[in-house]
Amino acid sequence: MAEQQTQQRLISQQALAKLFTEFIDPHYVIVDSETQKPYECDGLSMYCEMPMLVVLPERIEDVQKVLQICHQYQVPVVARGAGTGLCAGAMPNAEGVVLSLAKFDNIVEIDPLARTARLEPGVTNLSISQAAQDYGLYYAPDPSSQIACTIGGNIAENSGGVHCLKYGLTIHNVLSVKILTVEGEFLTLGSEGLDSQGLDLLALFTGSEGLLGVVVEILVKLLPTPEKAQVVMAGFDSVSAAGDAVGAVILEGIIPAGLEMMDKHAIIAAEAFVNAGYPVEAKALLLCELDGTAAEVDQYIKQVVAVFERLGASSIRLSQSEQERALLWQGRKSAFPAVGRISPDYYCMDGTIPRSQLSNVLNEMERQADLLGLRVANVFHAGDGNLHPLILFNDSIPGEFEKAEKLGGWILEYCVEVGGCITGEHGVGVEKIRQMPIQFNDLEITQFHQIKAAFDPKGTLNPGKGIPLLKNCQEYRAIRQIQPNGQVETQHTPQEAS
């Protein structure tokens, strides 16, 4: 357990709640376990913990006071948006406070001339584009959960989405953030200009998973809606052929707005869920969107179709209207819930690999799944190598969850082995903390701790997430040794929280 969890409490739940109700409506200082239940986990529900308290302040000044009080009494604080994250990054601390920012859902300003939007952290991703569309603008990052996920959470995890290949992740679309430190001090990272002085703390903060501060305001850039956008949907008779087609499109010098892949399991599930007209007989499906001027799109469409035909596409279809284009993407974005139709449980992974390794990793992943008697449905951002394997299992069968977790760990470690990393956009949280020492050495992890200590000396912001204790890294590496039979054996021990 973390030091904050084992030390004696400096303040009781009742006393802390009384302090909070002096400036927060008592209805939004939640102490009873039944009302706290929805906060016990984020989207990765296999990791759960009940908090000591949940608070839902309405003013930035109240967030500041919550942080100041918690800092004074060394109470852990876990900031939370919509709770759609998939790494247990927003899982509560048993001795701490869940600081919900759900009430901060105002779009403060849209500046159509500067092409920016100023937002509170509880604004949902999709609502940004909806508010900007009257000005012919939109916000590019579009995670599958965009209807529910919030911009504050997007910053915490550096979220991407199906259009991240051309337009980048959250970090590439945020100009500045206003944050509160653990002591309740206001800081602004970034600027309204093209650059800002000093260290690039905005890049450091984006993707820091609530370990360094709490976001209270965000300035994002907006993009003009392209003149034309069209999707090429291509079916392939093998995952390898589809993987090769991804690399071939990029070699043509084309940067699609989105380039997504789904395998047979995901195709069948999504088609049954949305009825988008996916080729259910295909072993793999590519969705390639081209956008820009009408002349650009027409040229790129011809090139992409030629590439897909040359590499043996079994079917090719072009979207003929904005409604059809949206429907094709709806199937892709609905793939996660759709998979629930073909498996009682699934474990969503997130790792990134070089594009050149797509076919190799997908084939090796299938082989490993077969050895464990599991199935994997693959839905991912093929253009930038960000994998989202969905490991299908039945939690009611003893041992199946453990097998799914073992396969998930293997996938992350294999991503590192082929030159990738353990996360693309879902974060580390609790889920991947055991794989951190596979990707980073002791010196690098020590540097992470030093950065954490610079922002949060007492370690009370989202403790136990993201950064493993160095001694646990050493223990993990010691266990992961080559056995006499020449095989590498990894035995996971329970991970202490940092």
Please characterize this protein's 3D structure.
The chain has helices at 3-6, 13-20, 33-36, 60-72, 125-132, 151-157, 164-167, 201-205, 239-251, 264-274, 294-310, 322-333, 335-339, 358-372, 400-417, 436-439, 442-455, 470-479; strands at 29-30, 53-55, 77-80, 97-100, 107-111, 116-119, 137-138, 174-180, 186-190, 214-221, 223-224, 228-236, 258-263, 284-292, 315-318, 345-348, 351-352, 375-380, 386-387, 389-393, 481-482, 488-489. Helix 10 packs across helix 12. It has a seven-stranded antiparallel β-sheet with strand order 15-12-14-13-18-20-16, with helices on both faces. The N and C termini lie close together (8 Å). The protein is an alpha+beta fold and 498 residues long. Helix content is 35%, strand content 19%. The chain is globular, with a radius of gyration of 23 Å. A hairpin with a 5-residue loop joins strand 21 (481-482) and strand 22 (488-489). The protein folds into four domains: 12-100, Uridine Diphospho-n-acetylenolpyruvylglucosamine Reductase, domain 2, CATH 3.30.43; 107-224, Uridine Diphospho-n-acetylenolpyruvylglucosamine Reductase, domain 3 (2-Layer Sandwich), CATH 3.30.465.10; 228-339, 2-Layer Sandwich (Alpha-Beta Plaits), CATH 3.30.70.2190; 345-481, Alpha-Beta Plaits, CATH 3.30.70.2740.
